[in-house]
Amino acid sequence: MSADTAGVEALYTTALLRFATAGSVDDGKSTLVGRLLHDSKSVLSDQLEAVELASRSRGQEAVDLALLTDGLRAEREQGITIDVAYRYFTTARRRFILADTPGHVQYTRNMVTGASTAELAIILVDARNGVVEQTRRHAAVAALLRVPHVVLAVNKMDLVDYAEPVFADIAEAFTAYASSLGIPEVTAIPISALAGDNVVTPSARMDWYGGPTVLEHLETVPVGHDPAGDPARFPVQYVIRPQTPEHPDFRGYAGRIASGVLRVGQRVVAQPSGRASTVRRIDALGQSVDTAWAPQSVTLELDDDLDISRGDLIVPADGAAHPVRDVAATVCHLHDRPLRPGARVLLKHATRTVRAIVREIPSRLTLADLSQHPEPGELVANDIGRVLLRTSEPLAMDAYAASRATGSFLLIDPADGSTLTAGMAGDAFAGAAAAVTGAPDSDDGWDF
Amino acid sequence: MTVTARRPGTAAGSPYALPHLDVLESEAVHIFREVAGEFERPVILFSGGKDSIVMLHLALKAFAPAPLPFALLHVDTGHNFPEVIAYRDRVVARHGLRLHVASVQEFIDDGRLRERPDGTRNPLQTVPLLHAIDTGRFDAVFGGGRRDEEKARAKERVFSLRDEFGGWDPRRQRPELWDLYNGRHAPGEHVRVFPLSNWTELDVWQYIAREKIEIPEIYYAHEREVFRRDGMWLTAGEWGGPREDEPQERRLVRYRTVGDMSCTGAVDSDAATIEQIIAEIAASRLTERGATRADDKLSEAAMEDRKREGYF
């Protein structure tokens, strides 16, 4: 903790960065996470004591930093991570929420889960192995989920004599692949998580490297997306009507601005009805404001009493989305029951849940080489594929490329309420993915 | 009067940047409103501790100027700090809230629960809690749990589906993506909802300071008769302490968490203001639970095991 350097007052105004880590089982991801927490002094002494005790009772000589993050009985028993865990740490410059996603082969869906809210992804590779199939899958998921910043951490540099050419070759190969996926920018950092090189403190053994350490990069990467350029999207969550003596006629539309900026005096329409009005007042949780933007939770009052309810979308009159009933999307299937054409599901988009039918599953994607397997017949857990859906009512859905908030949706099993599938409307990748030569699909190419 | 930006110039760069507390606040309010929109009978667990106090403050903001659309539920262990009960009743009266109390003592008195040999009542809360959820037909139960508290909590979802026994199965959790929360549940099942999932202890204190929220006095340093047990300063009381071999002494202490008196320890402190508390927390080398909770020290998986039984 850095209150001594930052001052208590400064802690109020720090920004928040959500990031995710991805790496396969032996790439040293848990060690990197442990090192980040430990060297940034985010592990407190009683936690460290507990881990030391647990390491000793297991007969291990050294303290196993992975025990800091593996919290469940089954994980400790098997020595693997089975679920996304969220970690929190703070430096003088920033607050961090880390989605610690398992790298084990069955858990693609968990990386998708972690990446869905991340603004940055750290993809770990072993310097001895370079870019392998697993690395390409992780990069593809980051691209698919449109994580704005990607960091390549080339780990175990201590095992390749801290040699610059090893790092340079891996960084170049990865950057070329990433750009074919449409990832705009990659920051490559040579590290040794075990020895602590370039994680929090700059490495004396790699003086050829002039870039930031992992932590320094996390502290300085631009956070947040400038909302000014996006169309405003306001999914109505709840209508506030006190009907009390003090507020007999109050009617406020409560929600969280999903994208863009809203202003008092702005002309808006409610979708799907298309009724128009003007923003009369914006209440930002107790404070009346002229302007509010994503991701603020606010309450809007309009000039006219419109019939607006939960599930409606309030948007600028000159920037409405086109309501559709046929949705083409890339999905990641999450559930153990397969998704098949003809399935009747519920589709949750922003605050609206409607009935939907899976009309077609035109293709399944092999993440490792981005080849398309046509007409797969079904998607099983961890599969990523294209899906065509027909909804019972029109939805004002944006392309995921334009808005992560209003381009994403869930498919839910109406029978038992299970979350089945995560969906992203529109094209899968931003870049020239088609340029990647399609290798034949392999049978086992689907699991992470 | 209106202003253009809430706290202009606070975060670096864009005029649209939001300080992290605003982001956490918006997220928590979003969660409250989702539940209000999708469930029939939600209830807020309220212990009078700082997390539930912040949770209530956020809930009141989320629906203003309308009254809170939820009732409160307090699981009363019978070993509460009197200052906390007084605070609870003050808050309920001030905001005109509805309060349900589930009493561990009543369950012990009529034989449905048996006192544990160690006198700790924290694990006994689960039975009256589940009974109250059942009889109140509550389908969503807000808890103030934070993922930074404990390893098993770090794996908890914001919407946590519980079976008819209130049990948590970490292998059967629903994946949670973006801010799309799935609250579907079968009759008899309910969902535990944790709006403060992404908050840390420091965030909670900073928010209390920023919003000038009143808290029970025992969070501030005060002189108190305490005795040492299992490395913690406990307060003497009818719950069964101290034993003859546990001498009492008067010390300047405060509480970092508020729970059952039998297992919640005080810490040595002279922090008399919120600012001093924040400085103390920021410099502390101990976690909140490590410093003050006996029940989490029972085993490496104590929290996970209790959650499987229906604890929150």
UniProtKB/TrEMBL annotation, chain B:
Keywords: ATP-binding, Nucleotide-binding, Nucleotidyltransferase, Transferase
Its biological purpose: With CysN forms the ATP sulfurylase (ATPS) that catalyzes the adenylation of sulfate producing adenosine 5'-phosphosulfate (APS) and diphosphate, the first enzymatic step in sulfur assimilation pathway. APS synthesis involves the formation of a high-energy phosphoric-sulfuric acid anhydride bond driven by GTP hydrolysis by CysN coupled to ATP hydrolysis by CysD.
Family listed: Belongs to the PAPS reductase family. CysD subfamily.
Signal sequence, start to end: none
PANTHER family with a match to the protein in the record: SULFATE ADENYLYLTRANSFERASE SUBUNIT 2
InterPro entries (UniProt xref): PAPS_reduct_dom (IPR002500), Rossmann-like_a/b/a_fold (IPR014729), SO4_adenylTrfase_ssu (IPR011784), Sulfate_adenylyltrnsfr_sub2 (IPR050128)
HAMAP family hit by this protein: Sulf_adenylyltr_sub2
Identification of the protein by name: Sulfate adenylyltransferase subunit 2
EC number of the protein: 2.7.7.4
Pathway annotation: Sulfur metabolism; hydrogen sulfide biosynthesis; sulfite from sulfate: step 1/3
Domain Phosphoadenosine phosphosulphate reductase per the UniProt entry, residue ranges: 42-265
GO molecular function, one term: ATP binding
Span list, region Disordered: 293-312
Reaction(s) catalysed by this chain's protein: sulfate + ATP + H(+) = adenosine 5'-phosphosulfate + diphosphate
BP term (GO), one: sulfate assimilation
Pfam families in UniProt: PAPS_reduct
Subunit structure: Heterodimer composed of CysD, the smaller subunit, and CysN.
